[in-house]
Amino acid sequence: MKSLAGWAAALALMAAVPTAEAQGTLGRAPEWAQSLAVNDTLPTTGGRPTLAAEGLAFAVRVTIAPNGGGVARVIRIDGAERARLYLRRFTGHPTNGWWMWGPDTPIQKALTSQQRADIERLARSAVAVATVGGQDGACPRGERAFIEVMVGDRQTSLVRDCLGQDPGSQLASAVSALAGSQTEEDMRRAAIQELMDADRAFSEMAQQAGVAAAFAHYAAEDAHQFVPGQDPAQGRRAVTEFWSTWPEGASLRWEPQAAQVSDRGDMGWTWGRGVTTYNGETRTSRYVTVWKRNIDGEWRFVVDIGNQD
Questions:
Q1: What is the per-residue pLDDT across 78-134, written as a single tens digit (0 to 9) for each?
Q2: Which of 47, 241, 303, 308 could cross-link with 290 by S-S, CB 3.0 to 4.6 Å?
Q3: Are 71 and 182 in contact (CB under 8 A)?
Q4: 36 and 74 fall within a common domain
């Protein structure tokens, strides 16, 4: 469970960026945006205090939140030669605070050359107009945004209480569209797909690198392996030792049938069917695996239970 952004982020802000100078454009953020955007300033979780960095022609960070509650996002685009997008997501409401959804580290996405060019063009327009434009007053069903822009040696920030058609709003809307994850249902569907893909990759590794290597790789440090008629193997080392006795020449493959994730996107489960083949004999089984994300946002299993049909 992640900490409430409103107070935990404030503590992180004091520790990581103690002065307005260190905060750069973030130091001019309204309170609602600062408590969200500060999560993208910590180097230990893939952030940085200022937009400017070596090798970047431009950079944009958009903190965007729905006025009526739902999903808030902090989206950063680094305009290196090969541009990348970094996304952090939160659920909550402006009056009650925001909770981080998923891992502490951002989701990363490579941009195409055309997407990079489009964002750079909009960033240059936003820098040129600075704080000019925008719609007065918050729109009850719309989104508000705090926009930080760096192009060359120029930096500025813009506040939009309601996104419109001015250059700053257009930049925020374009960055928002590239990031996706605009609703809780979007995030849940994406997380379920990620978890299904992780379970399939787990099975594929068992085929390619061996069953023991796959379980050693995907086990969390506090993993538990349950086997009928035996005490569970507790801890990654014990799980690794258990699977190290897997017979040479035996194969184990499985396919997840369904998955679910927690309300915060940091835990989930899969269930599926497996097939074991050894010495010409084939047996089928069923399994349930409970997963959690590690600090890098990768899915690792904490509980694995299986039984033969």
A1: 999 999 999 999 988 888 889 888 888 999 999 999 999 999 999 999 998 765 444
A2: 303
A3: yes
A4: yes
The DSSP symbol for 48 reads -
What is each CA distance from 140 to 65, 68, 69, 83, 162, in whole angstroms? Answer: 12, 6, 10, 34, 9
181, 213, 214, 219 from 241: Cα distances, Å: 40, 11, 12, 12
Phi–psi pair at 186, nearest 5 degrees: -55, -45
In a domain? residue 189: no
In this prediction, residues 13-21 reach a mean pLDDT of: 38
Q: What's the CATH number where 212 sits?
A: 3.10.450.50
**DSSP assignment, residue 246?**
P
